[in-house]
Amino acid sequence: MGLPETVDFASNFAVLVRIQGPDPKGLKMRKHAFHQYNSGDTTLSASGLLLPDTLYAAELAKSQGLGLVVTVASVVEPFLSSKHREGISQGPPELIPGAHVDVMVEEKLGLRKDAVGGLDKGAPCWLSAQLIRLVDVPVSSLALQSLVEASSGSMDHGWEVGWSLASHESGSQPFMDDVQTQTENGNASTVESHRHARGGSSNPSIMGRSTTRVAILGVFLNLKDLPNFKISSSRKRGDFLLAMGSPFGVLSPVHFFNSLSVGSIANCYPPRSSDISLLMADFRCLPGMEGGPVFGENSDFIGILIRPLRQKSTGAEIQLVIPWEAIATACSDLLLKEPQNAEKGIHINKENLNAVGNAYSPKSDGSFPYKYEHHNSHRPSPLPVEKAMASICLITIDEAVWASGVLLNNQGLILTNAHLLEPWRFGKTTANGTEDGTKSEDLFLTPKEFSRYSEVDGYGKSQRLQPKTPNIVDSSVADERKGYKLSLSYKGHRNIRVRLDHADPWIWCDAEVVYVCKGPLDVALLQLEHVPDQLCPTKVDFKTPPLGSKAYIIGHGLFGPRCGSSPSVCSGVVSKVVKTKAPPYCQSLQGRNSHIPAMLETTAAVHPGGSGGAVINSEGHMIGLVTSNARHGGGTVIPYLNFSIPCAVLAPIFDFAKDMRDISLLQNLDQPNEHLSSVWALMPPLPSKPAPPLPTLPESILQDNEKQVKGSRFAKFIAERDKLFRGSTQPGKAGRISNVIFSSKL
């Protein structure tokens, strides 16, 4: 089934949920990114999923012709009666007097006499709905809680849930939001700007429960024309995803109803478990799409989109999806995990129809239940991108910061970024702070926090290796390498550990620095001290990737060692290839071509912690090393504007990795190169030598042209920048790169 067919199929199940009620003090829109307010009434909206009756376990719903809609609870919770908001009542949820819920469905499903707005076949219509139940999803709640607790450094630099447009922290006082008002037919449509209220709860447990809670609505309509869907049984990183929802839907349903977003699965939580409780999605969604259905390849149903997880310090948003099995398990007396024939009846306990679902009992020690999915012969062969994931490593420095790395050979040689080891050369974060005033706790674990988790990685213990001598080089080369290493400023006093993900469970190894590039490229090499068996080194493609070709970025962005997560996969395309004059060591590789790719730009997301990861093409071959991304002046990271070093310019490193004997290959990269330096300093290309004047041109024209160039303000600016750049790259002096662009803080 192609993309157009999948989109058409998904539109049968995606609905817009609207709730309106009295709000004289204007408090109901708190923590919501948009709303409508008119004459003391507030209107909120979200997306929802209309379920086919083959997923109903309740004969009551079938017998009454009641269709079920699943959406996020956050859209209806502001209008709950006070006894239900405070948790006093355990009965069916009730709304405050005057509040009512409507659901907009596609016109082909809404042709009923009770449709709001008539029976216009050319447009979707509103149907009245009722709130049946609020359902906690314990396994997803605990997964989100575990993820937040493991990756939060401090109260000010942790995580929050919600869109960047919304105020996330709740308090007893009304939110004093700056508003931008647009008047249309007398109604005020409001989009809140981002401003935090003081106070509020940052309790990860409360955050997990409130974020993953869903609401089940009932709507009377004929479901005979609604097709059935299949529940997806396979969820792997990199798999295709399609989300359909209504961003800012209540502001203008005509414009926003059932919009779509396409992407892929970035990660699964818990990692390596057959019972996935939470999916991290790599697509861009907008406020109001929460509650919408998410489908995979062949239109298989995946789950429900919820509000994103957002890092306070960087503003990075992670889209979250609750798998259908988790929702159905939490509400097993009303919903089924797998579709059943419509004729099959399943008895339910009607006394529990309105009870809050709770089908989970944590272990006595509070640990999270998991099952490892062992690889066996019945599992299909992994895709090329899935194979490439096994070569991506997690690197920790002094048990305080982390980054990504790429395994180059079976001898345990690892490629990563130099700014991880020498951040001061690149204007990046140091262990004690940053040159721009940002503390390391923004993104990293403190040594005290990490020490408790250094041997337990998430859900499974890390594996310590028995001492084993790596088969690297002969003694003479080792001495030469050691001598080169001792010339580095840190002289080996750092504690470097590497987590290898090719085995189950993961393997932690100690590592030492082999090489840190002193030239313009931000690269370094590490060597495992004890080399495990059956390593999975990366495969390399030195060709220049075509613009628009598929690109996957694999690395440990945002979630570090304590989270116990596998490397994330973000997909995009190659958006730009910056070329420069080929250095002498690359001319043999380029043949007659005098220019070489010096920088890759992609539309795939790069988050803090992803530096040192790999850019992979659709064949699963590495085409670049992730190095930098951009951020706004206020500190917010721009994940979709990122820079990578092409493999072609790193050819000496891959040649050295073949047998690790010729150290002179690496020394080629240490030579000054003004062309590469200008590219990675984000400066204009160096001017070429002026051509001799053409003899056929009159002297007066040449003189006028020369005066015009000398008088050009832009030319003067470029000349001054060029002078500054040349002065900052003298031998023996470290140049400071503009702080507008910086590497992912690792």
A few lines on this structure:
The protein is of the alpha+beta class.
Describe, in plain words, how this protein is organized in 3D.
Residues 170-191 have a biased composition (Polar residues). It comes from Salix udensis. Residues 170-207 are annotated as: Disordered. The chain is built from 16 helices and 32 strands. Helix 4 packs across helix 5. Mean pLDDT is 75; it is low at 111-121, 168-200, 342-381, 430-490 and 728-746. By secondary structure, the chain is an alpha+beta fold. The strands form 5 sheets. Strands 1-3-4-10-6-5 form a 6-stranded antiparallel β-barrel. It has a 6-stranded antiparallel β-barrel with strand order 11-12-13-16-15-14. The protein has a 6-stranded antiparallel β-barrel with strand order 17-18-19-25-24-23. It starts with a helix and ends with a strand.
Question: Separation of termini?
Answer: 41 Å
Which residue ranges are poorly predicted, with pLDDT under 50 across at least 5 consecutive positions?
A: 111-121, 168-200, 342-381, 430-490, 728-746
Number of helices: 16
- Mean pLDDT rating: 75
Helix content: 10-25%
Indicate the radius of gyration in whole angstroms.
Answer: 29 Å
Q: How much beta, percentage-wise?
A: 25-35%
- Structural class comes to alpha+beta
Overall strand count: 32
Net shape? elongated
